[in-house]
Design goal:
The complex is a heterodimer of chains A (502) and B (150). Chain A is an all-alpha fold. Helix content of chain A is 72%, strand content 1%. In chain B, helix 1 packs antiparallel against helix 2 and helix 4 runs antiparallel to helix 5. The chains are: A mainly alpha (502), B mainly alpha (150).
């Protein structure tokens, strides 16, 4: 009963008043960010990262993680009530959720998404508790070649799943790799591509880049649109789903949880993707698929469960291997490193308090979210009435202050603004941001493991094919890269490659 | 996207080419002992290869109607907002957080959000004070004080 002991220890950590408080602040901000269109969890977490510098590492990560899964709850509120997704993972909820609201069933729609999210959250946390320790055990045997292949696989899957053509995603990954090499070389200490600019000697920071590409760029592109936020329902009643609602959505929740969990573990498998897949599955499983789009409760319950389960599953590679699977997890990894937490397979042993504290905090956070999202729904409806013209100056201000307080200098602010403009142009010219950000984060691991592997093998690249795990991974990478060039298979990829902005 | 891909593909190709020429200066090393320039070189290679593919795919595709990605954009608004945040960044250390924030919110609300002067000044003042309390007092973020000392 070692596991039970660990879990109880984790609860002991979370239930300390300070951690409880930061967990609450995290899920509160998460819900807020989820509710507000035009600000996603990625930007919110990066701009709040500097505020955690004075906290203990555990409190900091508990809070930041809370923002992430909290946003999954909040996003559905906007989708259902306003027909605008609060963030990318709730895009699909608009379809049936808004129709339900139009029929006066906003209450049950909101209710089932909160309950579904909670059930899925619980499921994915139990999955995380069961899967993480053995996986970390296995990962202890990984050497540089395994790490290199895994990181390469992660990047390839992300480009494979990204919207638009795969070559454009790979192009962005190349740019991310390059940006990451600016600054000092980790192995030799010599500087690269700094052009004698002082601000560049430490390299380009992850946080300014992410804030620019996801925060500033989002604001700049929203300036063109007049976001009209008309809240459909004035008063939301009957939040508790009826027995009939439960019967109609119980399997959707179960399927959504399982799909979401496994997609979440995949590198590049985002919450957004999980919600899309879940919706497609529900439509296929339904006896009345033609009714989807007219306010089917299963079309709300499935995707909302899936996106929450995915956010739990995504913690597995992060906490066991130290490999983030998307931009949000990359920020969490960055935060852990700033706080001096040693990431990788040793984490679960060397820093038990941290590991189990963060894992169990997600359960506590999910319970808090259920309370925040059901009885307090009226509050969030009020938040939705704040017009974007008042909101966007504040988002800009938060980004500016956030980037300044990273190192107390204005250099990071300029980097952020420049990447804001680059991110804006990328949106215009249809290039995906996630491959760039993930490649940027993974490059140091990739470079070090590549160079170390080649040192070990004395320059033979075949080292990646001589070790079973690494060889299997490389074969998968090659398959994924060749896949889109086979015309028959290309169409299939286009079917699963979906819009994914966050 | 045809024309836009031709443009973006060419620009990225030039960037990739620049990296390929510049990276060897930092020492490529050999396969058995890769140097600091090795990874940048690889990234330059990736950029070049896929920008060429982007360019060729666009060049070989049927010329369709040009998608007007720049239509309906309020350039003035866009440039004004970028200008404001750049000016804010430039003046932050000289004038201090409170004054800069007040004017930033004021200008953005009045000119971009088309609020009245009264509302803009009110919100500008409120956001300056509240964000100061939040970041400086509560989160101890050491914001710049500027020449006036606040």
């Amino acid at each position: 009963m070692d596991l039970l002991h660990s879990v109880l220890m984790g609860f002991g950590v979370v239930l300390q008043p300070m951690n409880l408080l930061f967990c609450f602040i995290g899920v509160l901000i998460g819900t807020l960010v989820g509710v507000l269109p035009g600000l996603g969890p990625t930007a919110a977490m990066s701009l709040l990262l500097p505020t955690t510098f004075h906290m203990s590492p555990i409190s900091a990560i508990i809070m930041l993680a809370g923002i992430y899964y909290g946003a999954m709850y909040g996003g559905s509120t906007t989708s259902i009530l306003v027909n605008i997704p609060g963030e990318a993972a709730s895009v699909i909820t608009c379809i049936d959720g808004y129709q339900m609201a139009r029929k006066g069933r906003a209450g049950p729609a909101l209710g089932i998404s909160a309950f579904g999210s909670f059930i899925a959250g619980t499921f994915s946390i139990i999955g995380l508790i069961l899967v993480a320790p053995p996986l970390a055990e296995m990962a202890l045997k990984f050497g540089p070649p395994e790490y290199f292949s895994l990181v390469l696989l992660g990047l390839t899957i992300l480009t494979f799943l990204s919207s638009g053509p795969m070559y454009k995603a790979l192009l962005m990954a190349g740019v991310g790799l390059f940006l990451s090499t600016i600054g000092l070389d980790n192995l030799t200490g010599s500087s690269r591509f700094t052009f004698d600019i002082v601000a560049l000697t430490d390299g380009v920071g992850l946080v300014p880049v992410v804030m620019g590409v996801f925060g500033i760029a989002e604001v700049l592109s929203n300036l063109e649109l007049e976001i009209k936020q008309e809240v459909f329902t004035k008063k939301v009643t009957h939040l508790l789903p009826t027995l009939q609602d439960w019967i109609e959505s119980k399997w959707a929740i179960v399927r959504g949880s399982i799909i979401g969990f496994f997609i979440g573990i995949l590198p590049g498998g985002s919450s957004t993707l999980a919600s899309f897949v879940s919706y497609a599955v529900e439509k296929r499983c339904s006896k009345t698929p033609e009714k989807f789009g007219t306010g089917m409760i299963a079309g709300v319950a499935g995707p909302e469960s899936a996106n929450n389960a995915a956010s739990g599953g995504a913690f597995i590679p992060l906490l066991t291997l130290g490999i983030p699977t998307g931009p949000v997890l990359a920020i969490l990894l960055g935060a852990m490193m700033i706080h001096g937490v040693q990431v990788g397979p040793m984490l679960i042993h060397s820093n038990q308090d941290f590991f189990w504290g963060v894992v169990t905090s997600m359960y506590v956070g999910n319970a808090m979210l259920l309370v925040l999202n059901l009885p307090l729904i009226g509050l969030w409806v009020q938040v939705l009435r704040v017009p974007y013209s008042i909101l966007f100056p504040l988002i800009l201000l938060f980004c500016l202050v956030g980037s300044y307080s990273l190192n107390n200098n204005t250099g990071d602010m300029f980097v952020m603004i420049i990447f804001g403009i680059i991110g804006y142009l990328m949106r215009k010219y249809k290039y995906d941001a996630p491959p760039l950000v993930l490649a940027f984060v993974l490059c140091p691991i990739m470079e070090q493991s590549l160079r170390r592997s080649l040192l070990i093998s004395n320059g033979s690249p075949f080292i990646f094919l001589q070790r079973p795990i690494s060889a299997g991974t490389i074969i998968l990478v090659i398959f994924l890269l060749v896949f889109p060039f086979i015309p028959r298979l290309k169409k299939k990829r286009e079917k699963i490659a979906l819009e994914d902005k966050d | 996207m045809r024309r836009h891909d031709l443009i973006s593909g060419s620009i990225l190709f030039l960037i990739g080419l620049f990296i390929l020429f510049y990276a060897p200066q930092f020492g490529l090393g050999s396969l058995s002992v890769p140097g600091p320039g090795f990874m940048p070189f690889l990234s330059g290679l990736v950029i070049c290869i896929f920008s060429v593919i982007t360019f060729l795919k666009a060049a070989l595709s049927k010329p369709a109607e040009v998608e007007k990605i720049w239509a309906g954009i309020k350039f003035r608004r866009l440039i004004f907002v970028i200008l404001m945040i750049v000016v804010y960044t430039l003046l932050l250390k000289k004038l201090g957080f409170i004054i800069c924030t007040f004017f930033l919110i004021l200008m953005l609300l009045h000119y971009t959000g088309s609020r009245t002067w009264f509302v803009s000044i009110l919100y500008g003042g409120l956001s300056a004070i509240l964000s100061y309390l939040l970041f400086e007092v509560w989160l101890k973020a050491q914001l710049p004080k500027g020449i006036f000392g606040f």
